[in-house]
């Protein structure tokens, strides 16, 4: 079995390292939709924010502020105007942090179990929170009670929103699709095309479907329209020799609508679903990548390199498991997207129609 050696390279892609990273594993990353402010949540109960500046191909990071939760923080989201950050986690609550005004964080959502994922829905001016208590709740942050509580078939693992489409991935491979124009009823319930536990979901930019990633090193491309089911397929990724790794993060590029995958094998790759091609395979880091995100114009790709707990506490060595956040400039690949397509591997050799 391959292992992540302490002396191995955590930064083989020569990305820019973010200053003063969290002291424990990083659970989520999100960029402001308006400016290059990056927020990270982590298992050390903290939510941190950095200002990212870029001069040509040189990128710098400056720690700006942080807040604390009572227990590990699992998820984060920005308000669409870039003024406010939401964070949720094992203390069963979501905090709202008015970052730009320097205000104090306040609790705006509560659950009966840890909050696993959250999403701000600007078209509704509501926050959605999904929990291991098997509920999805919608919140008007000015009120103490949820606007609506939606029962889920199992624990929430991941949420993605591209209004009016919302997809919630739960335990037992359920994928619950909502039309947010009628948010109190399920639009469709789908059994994942992947055979094992859902780890990540991402709505298509055109709202016509979604990606789903699982712990088995595979991604499913799923269209909602029954007439487009022949376009559905799955493909293998984040595998090496006989080792199979979780697909922890799926991120669509905000401009080109290509997408990135990041996995527990320590690799991140860029793909084009429409041509079924891999655009770029990056070098494997020496620790897992638990989360990743693009900035608002897609010129910076942020990813965390740290222990992701997929091999349990018994395989965690605090002396060697350092935590890093890196910033990669992917524009070279995306600017020459069509040139890349003619040279890179074709998914059609490994994809499966479902």
Structure description:
With 354 residues, this protein is an all-beta fold. It folds into two domains: 26-161, Methylamine Dehydrogenase, Chain H; 192-311 and 320-354, YVTN repeat-like/Quinoprotein amine dehydrogenase (Methylamine Dehydrogenase, Chain H), CATH 2.130.10.10. Helices cover 3% and strands 47% of the residues. It starts with 15 loop residues before the first strand and ends with a strand. WD repeats lie at residues 19-60, 66-107, 108-149, 240-281. This is Protein RAE1 isoform A.
Task: Give the gist of this structure.
The protein is mainly beta. Helices cover 3% and strands 47% of the residues.
User: CATH homologous superfamily of the largest domain?
Assistant: YVTN repeat-like/Quinoprotein amine dehydrogenase
State the helicity in percent bands: under 10%
* Strands in their spatial order, largest beta sheet: 18-19-20-21-31
What's the shape?
A: globular
Structural class designation:
mainly beta
Biggest β-sheet strands, sense, barrel: 5 strands, antiparallel
**Tally of DSSP helical segments:** 2
Number of strands: 31
Radius of gyration: 19 Å
The protein's oligomeric status is: single chain
Low-confidence stretches: 1-7, 335-345, 348-354
From the 3D structure, determine the CATH topology of the largest domain.
Answer: Methylamine Dehydrogenase, Chain H
WD repeats: 19-60, 66-107, 108-149, 240-281
Protein name: Protein RAE1 isoform A
Organism: Glycine soja (Wild soybean)
Keywords: Repeat, WD repeat
